Amino acid sequence: MHPELILLNARLFDPAGGAFLRHTALAATDGMISALGDDQDIRALAGPGTHILDIQGAVVTPGLVDGHLHPVHGAELTHGIDLSGCTDLAAVRDALAAGVREVTRGEWLHAWGLDPNVFGEGPVEAAALAPVLDGVPAFIQLFDAHSALASPRALELAGIEGPRAFDQSAEIVCDAQGRPTGLLLEEAACELVERAAPRPTRAARRERLAQALRGMAAAGLTGGHAMDANGDSLALYGELDAAGELPLRLRVAPWCQPGADADALRALIELQGTGGRLWQVAGVKLFMDGTIDNGTAWLERPDCHGESTHAFWPEPAAYTRVVAHLHRAGVQTATHAIGDAAVRHVLDSVEHALAGGPATVRHRVEHIETVPDDTVRRFAGLGVVASMQPTHCTDFTRADHSDNWSRRLGEERAGRAWRCRDLRDAGARVVLGSDWPIAPYAPLGVLAGARHRRPSRDLSLPPHGPEQALGGLEALRAMTVDPAYAAGEERVAGRLAAGFRADLSVFAENPAAVAATELPQLPVRLTVSGGRVTHRAADL
User: Fold this and answer.
1) CA nearest neighbour of 173 among 141, 125, 139
2) Rounded Cα–Cα distance for residues 172 and 214 (Å)
3) Average pLDDT over residues 379-404
């Protein structure tokens, strides 16, 4: 069988060994790297259908993998007005006012990416935006996607007049008189308003997803660990894959919510391994808390507002039983745990599961925003993967701790922010990701944030926790070698070697050596997933 793809005139950098290979060419056959060698020898393998590319001395690395992202949810959320660049209320109001002028009477206004820091020390509520949203049904997602603001008209259309009870940690925030302020915390509350708004057609949703995935491939991503499978997500992935339009290799973890019974768990277990050529259901996503910024994290001590005191699961012991059940079935769990109490409980639950089942399942904790030393040390001993999003730290907090996240936590806990370095030095596997749509998906930006720890919009500002920065090679491994390990695929992915997947990211220079502050501008020359070119620079 002849190769389907040959790359010539290449510099092959394998982060597993931390060095360039002596070879200058690579062949891919049936989606796998089939040969490495010099240009002449590899060119001789070509057949009449082989795609041969001279990549002009560009640097080839194993394909970059985003360790935590939400493709379908992100494609749906990131329509409407992008508020992520607004740094004060005046800018938010101006952006919304411009949007209001574009909608017809009665039409819903959607916006996303709202940073709670624009409210300063005041409450996050719709009243602050009332001057521009009078009579307009508006649904505005905050940047964390765990909370939203709904205008009075949107609340009216959703039939929300006061507080409600939920089966999970969610809330319709109300004032002292029991009137909704517009702030909705967690999915169950947000969903009430989302259901009242018109939904895009399925064809529109499919195209938005395809467009987002194409953008990811153009940014250098070859794969991602997708942390949701809600609604018809799996069907959309299947359609794109069957049509040859899925440019990323995706591992998809469906959610398990509080209240899941035996039938729900059985269905999750039966889903494992289903999929197509470039996507597969693998693992289950759970939540142990919400977010620090909106007061729904689970902390060992309350925040400065007396909030973040409860687990997402009303009965944390039920979560522990679910983890043990999935562990016995050989299913990996990936648990959203941001606060110190949440992370500790997840590790306790994994330890309990390991005592009653095989030690071959590699469980994960997602986010890990603030934890003490004793918790850091437990990850390696339990074999738990630390999934981190450094740009959450760099872009939503500040080195002087004047931001909402830091003020809520206080100096001690804010000083333990995103401990990527400490976790790695303690022997844990650290996987990096964006959590898109919470932060931009561009992987070079994620790598840069892990290294410089500075706000991407102003690199002249001081870094937040510079002692937690990773080195260039360490960061690159955390988006190549370590995601493969987290997936249990280290024998077929994350390396440049014969018999490994032909998932390749190609850059003008070595991303491990380019200065962190210059890394986001490094040109992506080529992206390959499963031996198929998914992005190619115009001049290549």
Assistant:
1) 125
2) 36
3) 96
- Cα 526 to chain centroid distance, Å, stands at 23
Query: Is there a contact between 448 and 519 (Cβ–Cβ < 8 Å)?
Result: yes
Q: Which of 377, 26, 73 is nearest to 224 (CA)?
A: 73
What's the pTM value of the predicted model, to 2 decimals?
A: 0.94
Task: Provide the pLDDT for residue 450.
Answer: 98
Helix (H) or strand (E) holding 12: strand 11-14
Chain-centroid distance, C-alpha 207: 21
Q: Which residue's structure tokens are 């050989």?
A: 330
With CA atoms as reference, report the closest residue to 65 among 332, 522, 448, 446: 446
Whole-number average pLDDT of the chain: 96
Contact 330, 299 (CB under 8 A): no
Distance (Å, rounded) from C-alpha 390 to C-alpha 378? 21
CA-CA distance, 363 to 355, in Å (whole number)?
A: 14
CA-CA distance, 417 to 103, in Å (whole number)? Answer: 41
pLDDT at 359: 78
Report the chain's C-alpha Rg in angstroms: 23
By C-alpha distance, which of 347, 339, 299 is closest to 319?
Answer: 347
Enter the DSSP assignment of 195.
T
